[in-house]
Amino acid sequence: MNVLSSWRSLSEKIIIPIAALILSLVVFGIFCALNGTNPFAVYSVIYQSAFGSAFSWQGTLVRAAPLMLTALCTALPARLGLVVIGNEGALVMGGIGAIAAGLAFSSLPPLVVQIAMAIAAIILGGIWIMGVGALKYYRGVNETISSLLMNYIAIAILNTLVEGPMRDPSSLNKPSTYPLLEVNWLQSIPGSRVHFGLIYGLIACVIAYFLIQRTTFGFGVRTAGGNIRAAKIAGLPVGKLTLAVCFLAGSCAGLAGMVEVAAIHHRANASLNTGYGYSGILVAFVARNNPLASVLVAILLGGLLASGSGLQRSLGLNDASVLVFQGIVFLVILFSESMYGKLDFFKDRQVPPKITPSTQPIA
Amino acid sequence: MAAETADWLGVPLAIIGGTLRGSAPFLFVSLGECLTEKSGKINLGLEGTLLTGAMSAYAVSYLTGSPWLGVLAAGVAGLCLGAIHAWLSQRSGVSDVAVGIAMIVFGSGIAFFFGKAFIQPQAPQLPIFEFGAWSNYPPLQSALQVSPLLLIGIAIAPIMQWFFKSTRWGLYVRAVGDSPSAARAMGISVFWVRFLAITIGSFLSAIGGACLSLYYPGIWSENISSGQGLMAVALVIFARWQPMQCLWAALLFGGAQAIGPALQSVGVTSFRYLFNASPYIFTLIIMIITCSPKRTLAGSPGALGTNE
Hints:
The structure holds two protein chains of two kinds. Chain A is mostly helical. Chain A is 70% helix and 0% strand. Chain A has helices at 7-34, 39-51, 54-79, 87-104, 110-139, 143-163, 197-214, 216-226, 228-233, 238-265, 276-286, 291-315, 320-337. In chain A, helix 3 (54-79) crosses helix 4 (87-104), helix 3 runs parallel beside helix 7 (197-214) and helix 4 crosses helix 10. The radius of gyration of chain A is 22 Å and the shape is globular. Chain B has one domain (2-290): ABC transporter involved in vitamin B12 uptake, BtuC, CATH 1.10.3470. Helices cover 70% and strands 1% of the residues of chain B. Chain B has 13 helices and two strands, in the order H-H-H-H-E-H-E-H-H-H-H-H-H-H-H. Chain B has a two-stranded antiparallel sheet with strand order 1-2. Chain B is globular and about 60 Å long. At the A-B interface, helix 5, helix 6, helix 11 and helix 13 of A face helix 4, helix 10, helix 12 and helix 13 of B.
């Protein structure tokens, strides 16, 4: 089957998500109008503060970087049929690992320190989500619930460390760890204020795409995700695949924690869990777990997050409106999931046209 | 001296009091989740429902001066969110777990958006029964302050147990949850039974939210719910989908949640975040112990998690 004859089903994959995004913009506009704010002013503020200028583009990309990484934490296990939402927890654990490594090796050359921070974050975040995978495979514990609970446990560990053993006594109002030395900060890409975390995110998404779509490992993952019994009968090591995929997923979110610590906060404290994990879930859902699509979606959502303060400043909408908008996007995207295969326009015409009584695929 | 007796009696009494206060929201959300899951769908979004319920109860109580109107408003808000979940999660190709995650985001967004104005003012609180009034020992008095909402919740548990066991409608819910195709063959509308079960379950959890904002801790703030809505799912598994056992589970979890503050009140403050996280750790341990990869759990509704 060539591309030309299947353009309709291809366009379905592109048009439905875009239509869903537009519909959620409309619904959010209605929500704003009901609250007495001009929706068109809202759209224009979102556009201006997300993509309106080079300056706002940079703010958008700074937010998109951790989103690309945390999205992988949901997208990779999803290919295996697991709904993992422990992104926030893995991000926090990665942040803890990064700050611990950054402070312990602070006297070494900056490049070595950064590599150590990244490795510590990758290992800690990876093991965190690998635990979720192990519980699922060996104990049958529902991965969604266990990963959600582990988010809270990770945040409690962070708070305990930050208030206890790792606390900088000079941080009075907001308990924090000791700050990183300035030479060890993750630098900005020259000529911008976007840090190198964006490159990490892009590379991770591209690697994830090729790993899943183009390798034997990825084929095994997709097979096990499609039908776990068939995969077992075919002799695929489903347990090992689960652990490996969960480790990779967690390590991506952990790396996001390292990026946040090393480039934004320069120390670890409660502001590490500001919701990048939960927004990452949304990115993965909108991108339908495709790592390359999640790059684009992360940039869109990063822009939306960046527009929060703009909405507050110029229209007086409070900062929770971004959360409402995310919720609406989420619901509309899920609604759109049920539209695949329902619209006649997107069904591929066969040449010569063959009339079949039932369009249902035979299960 | 009285202070010395308080030292060793204070901690267990504070835990008892904290259990009575803290288990009310657990009870309502777990009963709501129990009803929902009995119909074969999971509602992971009860965290959002709980927050929206807490906010609307507080706001309406503040605006009208009547806390009971606030409880009613919470219930109505719960019905609305539940209706969204019930409709969306039953469309073909849509996972109920995913809708739940979306409803957490949406519900908390709604609660924070409209709740901003109500963080400062103090709303009228629900009346409480002073069961400790006979004693002149203050820790005992404060431990035995019981909310009427908790009593209502305790009454709902056996009623729901009876409902599932002995009524025609209870049978419908169980049939739909265990085998939707058999229920359809019986002529039951699977969609509407699930719709009602999910919306009423969501109604109950929103009342649980009202417990938070109008009883204990009795304020509205954005972090008022410390994940009770999420733990409800685990709690129902622990209770093996039995409403009466939801009651005991809720008391147990309320107790686990009360340990941290009780220890803080006598000056044990180290590791307080870990103590406060004890319900999550506890839930996880329970799930690790009770789950098995080989079989589904005894008592689990047959259609749960099958997207059937």
